[in-house]
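Researcher: Checking consistency across runs. Here is D-alanyl-D-alanine carboxypeptidase/D-alanyl-D-alanine-endopeptidase again:
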Amino acid sequence: MTATRLPSHPLRLALPLVAAVAIAVPLASPVAADTADGTADLRSDLDALLADPALEGALSGVAVASVSEGDVLYENEAAAPLIPASNIKLLTTAAALDVLGAGHTFTTTVSAAEAPAYGRVEGDLYLAGTGDPSLTGDAFDRLAARVAAAGVTEVTGDLLADDTWFDTERLAPDWEADDEPYYYAAQISALTVAANEDLDTGVVNVTASPGTAEGDPVDVELDPMAGNLSIENAARTGAPDAEATADITRAPETNVFTAAGVLPAGGEPFTDLRTVHEPTDHAVHLFAAALEERGVKVLGDIGRGTAPGDTVPLAERESRELGALVLPLMKLSNNGHAEILVKAMGRAAAGEGTWAAGLAELGPALERIGVARTGFEAHDGSGLSRTNRLDAATVIDVLQAVQDEPWFGTWERSLPVAGVSNRMVGGTLADRMRGTAAAGNVRAKTGTLSGASSLSGYVTSADGEELAFAVINNEYPGAAPRGVQDAIAVRLAEFSRWSPTTSGLAARTDDSPSAPDADLECSWAGTC
């Protein structure tokens, strides 16, 4: 994926519907009375920020509430149902922690049709998954080592992958087909491979390295490589001053990866992530290679099959608890993890690992948490779907209600923190709001699609007052208005209820300390 590609197509939103709903459904809590100049100043400044040219013609749902005082400080189209992008992950993760529990783990098992005798398994060997998003190549190697440690040296039957914990629908029905090759739209399976330390699932690292002289071959690698993948290399090394045009693509519904284009001699390699077709097949082939490395020979084929209920367990891997796994999900806005949680919720609550069953649990879970509002419509768990709808007032309700949950501390720590360079702290906000009152203070979830951008979370005011805020922008004319969003967050960090504030941020300029506007946030461009 290149740094100029938008992750989806232009916004399609029914304006009359939004306007009607925004008028008919007012924010539940009344706006607080002007108790001090500081509150009036805040509203004036936020109005001015929303009048920024970057938002000309846009729809902006904004709400600010005081968690400490329990009042609403500001609202603008707060009940308008807008495309939330990755802000929907706030709902997905909160619901998952309610339905599954912060202590939930994902188990991957290896079992045999019969107990091994004298190192030999008569019959088939089964690899069964329950959606673990942290199964790296090393994890498969350790599973294989445990099989070998159980005394197995030979399997007379097949090695079969059992991914029936989830259904076989790999992509959400309304995702854009053009997104499918890119890592943020990877296929979802109950048995998948995490390709890197960020735990990006259903993908491989692709690398094309030029030779040292013009005409030299280009070295192409996939990692983790497995027997279900193949490479066709048509790339070439050009002159040292040649333009780098190399790319690695995958033919639809295959695992044939083709390298093409030119890399300048002695230049930098081309690197990126690309999705695989049928992650289950990739996982079982990777496990087969690990077994061979550990001295376990499989005489039969590699395929898929459902493990019978009377198989003999040989090895098991248990993931970290959900409370830990939610951190990379939220910090780096991992779409695949969010969709795995949706299907895991469906399996746990309804016995069906499907999008339909999992998404049906969002409303009841939020009600149990204490969110009375129903201002959302979810078609996936990650925010990649352009049919999702969410209003700012509902986001505020969620941000307030979760504070009474036993897992709140875990959930809040998973939010990106503005201006903190450590990527597992700052996440998608690492380069935003540096050098401002919001740096190290704002804890919030980002979101970006073409024509839809959002920022919602918490900020501590100048008086130490805890505020919850939600900003959802749709239909803006140019790049994502993250400069405006950042200016709003900074203004909230400087807010004092009891004294007037004159920060000057109401007139945002291009040299604002906020991060510059851009078409892609780091989670889409793979640069977090």
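Researcher: Does this match what you'd expect to see?
Model: One thing to look at in this run: The first helix runs from residue 15 to 24.
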